[in-house]
Amino acid sequence: MPITPTPTPSETPTNTPAGTTPVTPSNTPTAPLSDPDVYVGSSEGIIRKITPSGVVDLAIQAHNNSFVLTAIAVDPDGNVYSVSSDKTVRKINSSGVELWSYTEINDIVSVAVGPLGNVVIGSFNGTVRKLTSTGGSIWVHDAGAYVRAITIDANGFVYFGTDDNDVVKLSPVGGVIWTYSDHTNDILGIAVDYLNNVYSVSRDNTLHKLNAVGDFIWSFSDNEVDINNVALDADENSFICSNDGEVRKINRHGTVIWAFKASVRKVLGISVDINDNVYLCSNDGVINKLSSTGTLIWGINERASKFNDIASSPLSGTFPNLWGRSTVVTLTQTPTPTPTVTPTVTATSTMTPTATVTPTVTVTASPTVTPTNTATVTPTATVTPTISDTPAVTVTVTATITPTVTATVTITPTVTPTISDTPAVTPTTTVTPTVTVTSTVTPTVTPTISDTPAVTPTTTPTTTVTITPTTP
Fold it and tell me: What's the DSSP call for residue 395?
C-alpha cells in the first residue's frame, strides 16, 4: 500500500553562527538610562572623554601626535578602541589606561568591537583582521582594497566596505557570505541595525539600505557631496553626515525627517546613544550633541583640532540591547515586543520516502492433479469339473473399478511488489499439495446358464489389480 509522504519544511536561513546562543533582538530598555559619556578622536592622536553635559573630562594621548588617529569604537564597559596611521590598534579603559595594543603591517583606518569584546580592524593594505578581547589575532581576510568602513553585529558577523565599491558580509570565522557591488565609489561608512539590515554610505553621495541577505531595499542621495559616515537608532532611523557640514535623520523608508547644519566644513563622525541623542564631530573642531528631534543640546568648538570620529555607544548604534555606559557596570535591559520579527518560512515538501507498492500476486497452483488409474485384472480360474446332468454354467467375471480421488492443495501466493525507495518486502510461498487416492475395486460376477452338460466347477478366482496413478 502507498506510504504517505511527510513534508519537511526548509529552514530559514539564520544569522547565528553554529554553536552559539543568538542574541535576541532588542530595541528599547525597560527603564530610562542616563546619557553616556562620549569619546572623540582627533588627528593629533588624542582621545577626549566628554561628559553627558558637554564637559571635557579626560584627554588621552593614545597615539603619537605625528600620526593621524582615524577611527574609534566603544564597548559596553566604556573601554575605547582607537586606530591610527601608526599601524596600531589600542584598547584603553575609561580612566585612560592602555590595556593592550596590536600592530598591523600597514595603516589601520577602521575599527569595531563586538559584544564579546572581539575587535575587527580594516587596513590600508586591504585586510580585515579579527582580534581576541586581549589583542591576539584570530584570523585575517584579504579584502583586496582599502577598508575604510567596518562594523560587527550582535552575533559576530562582520561587515565592511572597500575602495572597490563593495560591501561585504563575513561569517564569524571570516568566510564571505555575500558581496554587494552597486555603489559607484569608495565605501566610507557602514552600520547594521538589530534586524541585521545593512546601511552603507559612499563617495557616490548615496546611502544604501540592504536586507540581511544583501538585497537592495532603497537608497538616498545627498545631492553632490560625499556622505562620510552613518549611525542608527533603535527604530531603524539612520543618521548621515556629509561634506557639506550637514547631518540628516532619515526614517526606515528612506525619507528625510530633519537636517541640521553643524559646520561649514566636513562632518566626519556621527553616533547615536540609547536615548536617541545624536553626536557629531567635524574637521574644523566642532563637537555637537543634538536631541532626537534635531535640536542642539550643547556644542564644543576647538578650532585647533580636527576631529575624525566620535563614539558614544558600541558601534554607534549597531545593537542597542548592548549599548554600554561608562558609569554602569551591569546593564539590565529587557527586550520589548516592538517590533515583532516574523520570519517567513517556505516549506518544501520532501517525500520521505515516496514508495508505491504495487503487489503482483502470482499464484502457482501446481500440481494439476489428473490421476490416471490403470486397472489390470487378471482372473485365474482353476476348474475341477464334476460331470452330472445339470446344465453347464459359464462364469464371466467383470471387474468394475471405481477409484475415489481426494486432492487437497494448500497454496500460499507469491507476492512480487514493485517498490520505490526500497521498502523491504519478503514474501514466502509454500505450495504443499496433498493427494490421497483411494481405489475401490468391486468385481461383478454374472453367471450365464446354458443347456450344456452339467459341469459343477470349483472356482477359486485370483484377481490381481494394478493401479498406477499419474501425477504431473
Answer: E
Is 362 a member of any domain? no
Residues 147-181 have pLDDT tens digits of 999 999 988 999 999 999 999 999 999 999 999 99
pLDDT value at position 224?
80
Q: How far apart are CA 186 and CA 308, in angstroms?
A: 17
Q: What is the distance between the alpha carbons of residues 32 and 273, in angstroms, rounded to a whole number?
A: 12
Of 316, 335, 354, the residue at which a domain comes to its end is: 335
Q: Are residues 165 and 243 in the same domain?
A: yes
Cβ(455)–Cβ(386) under 8 Å?
yes
Cβ atoms 267, 242 nearer than 8 A: yes
Domain membership of residue 10 (yes or no) is: no
pTM for the full predicted model = 0.64
Helix (H, G, I), strand (E, B) or coil at 314: helix
Instruction: Count Cβ atoms below 10 Å from residue 401 Cβ, excluding itself.
Output: 16
Task: Write down the mean pLDDT value for the chain.
Answer: 73
In this structure, are 94 and 208 located in the same domain? yes
| Residues sharing a CB contact under 8 Å with residue 259, sequence separation 6 or more, in sequence order | 246, 247, 248, 249, 294
How many domains is the chain partitioned into structurally? Answer: 2
* Pair 301, 185 in one domain: yes
Same domain, 77 and 153: yes
Q: Is residue 354 one of the residues assigned to a domain?
A: no
**Helix, strand, or coil here: 321?**
helix
The CATH code of the domain that includes 82 is 2.130.10.10
Look at the alpha carbons of 194, 198, 199, 201 in this order and tell me if their dihedral is positive or negative.
positive
Reduced to 3 states (helix: H, G, I; strand: E, B; else coil), residue 322 is helix
Range of the domain at 376: 371-414+426-472
Neighbours of 316 (CB within 10 A): 28
CA angle 38, 41, 46 (to 5 degrees): 115
Distance CA 176, CA 169 (A): 6
- Rounded CA gap, 34 and 95, in Å? 19
Domain boundary among 290, 314, 335: 335
CB 40 within 8 A of CB 309: yes
Residue 271 has which C-alpha cell? 553616533
For residue 334, the one-letter residue type is: T
- The answer to whether the beta carbons of residues 379 and 398 sit under 8 Å apart is no
Consecutive H or E run containing 152: strand 147-152
End-to-end CA distance of the chain: 37
Query: Could you tell me if 323 and 455 lie in one domain?
Result: no
Burial category of 110 from C-beta neighbours within 10 Å (exposed 0-12, middle 13-18, buried 19 and up)? buried
pLDDT reading at 354 higher than 60: no
